[in-house]
């Protein structure tokens, strides 16, 4: 059984620690946080140990894997330290706050001969996975365009770090990266990016961004992200092809809706913690499926569904969008970034609550949990 230490006892640290505690493949040996009281609260709930530092945990426990759930700008520091100690790494998305850090993380893990798993979790949401698989097997023919939305309340967390663009990268890097990764999984590499956002007005706690992507294969996508909701969280997806269309709307397809009152987003991050994490009606949440998958990869030596290179490429798209939002100009993937580093061009392939509608004959609704496909009536690809 793999012995796992979680660093960070905030929103995601708590989600990850709970998943490991519920897993047969892993044993949660402890939780680390600079706020010992936060680590102790999670540890007490899950009957494990709390530590104030990685060094203290390392000195006390046998560890195989360290799962890093601290704010994004701290990822590199911990990945290098953990790899240096010869432990496998799981790290939350976005991989890092800049591409140099992301590259250094890959090199540190390669150099140390340990695995680096980046938790791009959308690939483990059944509705998105189903949509991906339908696209790949040609269920809606040749895809021309896609539209994705992801949004919720402005996140309020430790030290209000999400509100500082220099620390979080804004919702373009922190939130929309999920759809950038998903769309790249479906359609391959992106050539050009254009973005509009309210960057710089983050103190309003109503951030919103619109990003257009042109893929190398000619597909275009519109990705919209929001941290302007008064409460809740919602995702939407629409992919159109010559034979039909796939749609998903979390608000329409969720098996249950739960809304809790929260101070998040209302108090300027001064107290409390509230980061919207999508609900799942499944017995195993996508977060648990993802982490179990990473543990299985370690056990069997197989490649993960999302590689560190995939996570790097999604980050690359995010930074191109951030640059475009700042300059007002379209950005070709491969142009030098503000950091001075040239963004390499790349490749990749391949869209789950999903609906598929076919164009001519009757409107088939062939749903998985929440995926629907509609196909156009004739084979002309012209739907109604
Ligand atoms: N996959 C997803 O759906 C998802 C959702 C939310 C957040 N995230 C990502 O997870 C990461 C953590 O976000 P969060 O919302 O849990 O943040 P958070 O602020 O809720 O938690 C971060 C925790 O790290 C602790 N911390 C800060 N500095 C530390 C240090 N040097 N050493 C040890 N602990 C330290 C803080 O005390 C806090 O408890 C971010 O990268 C974020 O983007 C992913």
Tag the structure with descriptive keywords.
Gfo/Idh/MocA-like_OxRdtase_N; nucleotide binding; Rossmann fold; NAD(P)-bd_dom_sf; nine-stranded mixed beta sheet; GFO_IDH_MocA-like_dom; single chain; binds nicotinamide-adenine-dinucleotide; globular; 32% helix; Dihydrodipicolinate Reductase, domain 2; Gfo/Idh/MocA family oxidoreductase; alpha/beta
User: CATH-wise, what's the superfamily of the largest domain?
Assistant: Dihydrodipicolinate Reductase, domain 2
Distance between the termini: 54 Å
- Give the overall average pLDDT: 86
Shape descriptor:
globular
Return residue spans where pLDDT drops below 50 for at least 5 consecutive residues. Answer: 264-271, 339-354, 358-369, 375-384
- Element pattern in H and E: EHEHEHEHEHEHEHHHEEEEEHHHEEE
What's the CATH class label of the largest domain? Alpha Beta
Rg (CA only)? 20 Å
Oligomer: single chain
Bound molecules: nicotinamide-adenine-dinucleotide
Structural class: alpha/beta
Q: What share of the residues lie within helices?
A: 25-40%
CATH architecture designation of the largest domain = 2-Layer Sandwich
Strand order of the largest sheet: 13-8-9-10-7-11-12-15-14
Largest sheet: 9 strands, mixed
CATH fold naming of the largest domain: Dihydrodipicolinate Reductase, domain 2
Q: How many individual domains?
A: 2
Number of strands: 15
Name the beta content range: 25-35%
Alpha plus pi helix count: 12
InterPro entries: Gfo/Idh/MocA-like_OxRdtase_N, Gfo/Idh/MocA_Oxidoreductases, GFO_IDH_MocA-like_dom, NAD(P)-bd_dom_sf
Protein name: Gfo/Idh/MocA family oxidoreductase
GO molecular function, one term: nucleotide binding
């Amino acid at each position: 059984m793999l012995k796992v230490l979680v660093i960070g006892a905030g929103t995601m640290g708590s989600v990850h620690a709970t998943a490991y505690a519920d897993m047969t493949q892993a044993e949660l040996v402890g939780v680390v946080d600079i706020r010992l009281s936060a680590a102790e609260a999670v540890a007490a709930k899950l009957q494990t140990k709390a530590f104030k530092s990685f060094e203290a945990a390392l000195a006390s426990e046998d560890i195989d894997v360290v799962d890093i759930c601290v704010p994004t700008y701290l990822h590199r520091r911990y990945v290098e330290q953990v790899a240096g100690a010869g432990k496998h790494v799981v790290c939350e998305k976005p991989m890092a706050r800049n591409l140099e850090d992301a590259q250094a993380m890959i090199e540190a893990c390669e150099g140390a001969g340990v695995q680096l798993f980046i938790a791009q979790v959308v690939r483990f949401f059944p509705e998105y996975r189903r949509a991906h698989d339908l696209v790949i097997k040609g269920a809606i023919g040749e895809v021309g365009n896609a539209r994705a939305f992801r949004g919720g309340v402005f996140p309020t967390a430790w030290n209000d770090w999400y509100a500082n663009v220099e620390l979080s990268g804004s919702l373009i890097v922190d939130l929309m990266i999920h759809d950038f990764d998903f769309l790249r999984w479906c359609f391959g590499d992106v050539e050009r990016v254009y973005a509009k956002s309210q960057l710089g007005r983050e103190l309003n706690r109503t951030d919103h961004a619109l990003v257009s992507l042109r893929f190398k294969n000619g597909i275009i996508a519109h990705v919209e992200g929001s941290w302007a909701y008064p409460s809740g969280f919602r995702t939407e997806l629409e992919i159109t092809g010559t034979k039909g269309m796939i749609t998903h709307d979390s608000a329409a397809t969720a098996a249950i809706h739960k809304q809790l009152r929260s101070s998040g987003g209302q108090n300027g991050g001064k107290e409390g913690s509230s980061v919207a994490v999508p609900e799942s009606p499944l017995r195993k949440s996508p977060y648990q499926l993802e982490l179990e998958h990473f543990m299985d990869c370690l056990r069997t030596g197989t490649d993960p569904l999302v590689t560190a290179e995939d996570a790097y490429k999604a980050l690359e798209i995010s930074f191109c969008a951030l640059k475009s939002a700042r300059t007002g100009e379209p950005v070709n993937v491969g142009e030098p970034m503000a950091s001075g580093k040239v963004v390499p061009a790349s490749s990749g392939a391949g869209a789950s609550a999903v609906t598929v509608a076919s164009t001519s004959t009757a409107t088939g609704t062939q749903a998985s949990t929440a995926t629907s496909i509609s196909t156009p009536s004739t084979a002309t690809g012209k739907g109604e």
